[in-house]
Amino acid sequence: MAADLSQIVKAYDVRGVVPDQWDESLSELFGAAFAEVTGASAIVIGHDMRPSSPGLASAFARGAAARGVDVTEIGLCSTDQLYYASGALNLPGAMFTASHNPARYNGIKLCRAGAAPVGQDTGLAEIRALVERWSASGGPEAAATPGTVGRRETLEEYAAHLRSLVDLTSIRPLKVVVDAGNGMGGHTVPTVLAGLPLTVVPMYFELDGTFPNHEANPLDPANLVDLQQRVREEGADLGLAFDGDADRCFVVDEHGDPVSPSAVTALVAARELARNGGKGTVIHNLITSRTVPEVVKDQGGTPVRTRVGHSFIKAEMARSGAIFGGEHSAHYYFKDFWNADTGMLAALHVLAALGGQDGPLSALVAQYDRYAGSGEINSTVDDQAARIAAIRAAYTGRDGITLDELDGLTVSSADWWFNVRPSNTEPLLRLNAEAKDETLMAKVRDEALAIIRG
Fold first, then answer.
1. Total domain count for the chain?
2. CA–CA distance from 130 to each of 18, 59, 124, 166 (Å)?
3. I need a surface site. Which of 55, 190, 194, 359 has the fewest CB within 10 A?
C-alpha cells in the first residue's frame, strides 16, 4: 500500500503530524529519494529541538547513506544555520523542523548545494513520487557501497560568518531582551551575540519542543505579550523574538511596541546599499509597505516587486543579483548568505544601526515607517474567485486607480493601496491595506472588507 503524501508534501517543504501522518520509516525513504533526485555524493542534515526531530533526522541519514551518499550531521541547529552549512560546505541540505507549528508536527526543509531552495517545481514533486512508489514496493535498492555518516559542529562558524557581515565593534552598550520561545534561538543567540557590548536578558532559552510558555510564532501578537512586558520592565533598548526554527526575527522598540517587518526591511536595505556603495537591487514582496521601495530609491538602489513567498523571492534574488530582500512576514534574504533567509543577520543589522547612534529605536525606525497599515486580515469566503471579481468590478474605471494581478489583485491610488490574495490551502481571502494616514487606511480597509464579506 503506497503512502499518501498529499497532506504532508506542501509547496515548499514536508510538514505533518508525527507519527499519524509520517514517521521514521517514511523519513528514511525521503532520505533515499533526496539522494536520488539531487544526485549528490554528500549531504548535510540538521534538526530542531522537537522531541521527534533527532529520530527523523537519523532515519533520513540512514536512507541517504544506504544509497551511497556521505552524510554530515550538524545536530541541533536553526534553519539558517543549516543554510549556512549548505552554503559553506556546498552540499545539499535537509532541516528537520515544523517552524512555528505545534509540538505534534514536524517537517523537512530541503535545499540543494549553496542553500538553493527545493520546492514542488525544483525537485519536491519527484521526491514525493519516489517515496510513494518505494513505500508500495518495499523500498529502494541499496548501493553497492553505502555512504558514511559523520558529525560536524558548525555553530561557531555560523556565528563568525554572520558577524563578519555586520560591523558591531564600535556600537554603544545596549540592553536587549530576547524571547526564543523555547525554540532554536536559545541555541544560537548566546554564541552569535557573545563578546558584543550587549546586556542580553534571555526569555525561554530552554530548548523545549513542547513550547510550554507560548507558541513560537511571533507573527501572532499574543505571542509577543511576554516580550513587550519584559522590555518595559527592564527598561531595555529593544526586544527580539524568534520563531521555532529561528529563521525569522521580530523586533519591538523600547516602549514594547512592535516594529513592522517592512520598517526593518527598509532599515536593512539602506544599510546593505550603503555597504555596496549605494548601488544594488533590493527585492520586496507586493504587500510590504511603500516605504521600502521609496527608501531603496532614496539610497540609490533599484527596488524590485515580487509575489509573496520565499521561492519567488529567492528566484528573483538569483536572477537579478539582488543584494537583499525582505517580506512582511519577517523573512530577510541576503546575497552574502547564499540568497537564503536569516532573521539573525537582520537582528544584527538592527543592533548595529541602533548602537551606532544615540537615539532610541522608536525614533530610528520612524523614518522607515511612513504609512498606516492594516496588517493581514483573513476572511472566510465561499468563492474566492467571485469575491475578487467583485472587487475588480467595483474599482475598474475609477479615476486615478490602477489594478494589477501580480499576486491576487492589487488596487492602488496615489494615497493608498490594498491587495487581496486567495489562500492556497484554505477558503480564505487575505487583505492587506496601506494609506497615508490611519483614517484613510481604515476607510479603504473597511470598503474592501465590505465587498469581500459580501
1. 4
2. 20, 16, 10, 43
3. 359
pLDDT at res. 1? 59
Shared-domain flag, residues 238 and 288: no
Domain residue limits at 329 = 261-366
Give the predicted TM-score (pTM) of the model. Answer: 0.96
Mean pLDDT of 326-353: 97
Instruction: Identify the CATH number of the domain in which residue 186 sits.
Output: 3.40.120.10
d(CA 168, CA 354): 10
Residue 408 in any domain: the answer is yes
Q: Residue 198 belongs to what H/E stretch?
A: strand 198-203
Query: Which positions are catalytic?
Result: 99
Determine the residue type at 311. S
**Distance from the Cα of residue 285 to its chain's centroid:** 13
> In terms of domains, do 292 and 402 share one?
no
Tens-place pLDDT, residues 214-253: 999 999 999 999 999 999 999 999 999 999 999 999 999 9
Task: Give residue-wise pLDDT tens across range 52-73.
Answer: 999 999 999 999 999 999 999 9
- Cα(203)–Cα(223) distance, rounded to whole angstroms? 12
Are 237 and 308 contained in the same domain? no
Q: Give the pLDDT confidence score for residue 100 in this predicted structure.
A: 87
Q: What is the mean pLDDT of the chain?
A: 96
Residue 197 located in a structural domain: yes
C-alpha cell at 267: 532599515
Helix-then-strand count for the chain, H and E: 14, 22
DSSP secondary structure string for all residues of 162-228 = HHHTS--TTPPPEEEEEE-TTSTHHHHHHHHSTTSSEEEEEES-S--TT-SSS-S-TTSGGGGHHHH
C-alpha cell at 79: 534553519
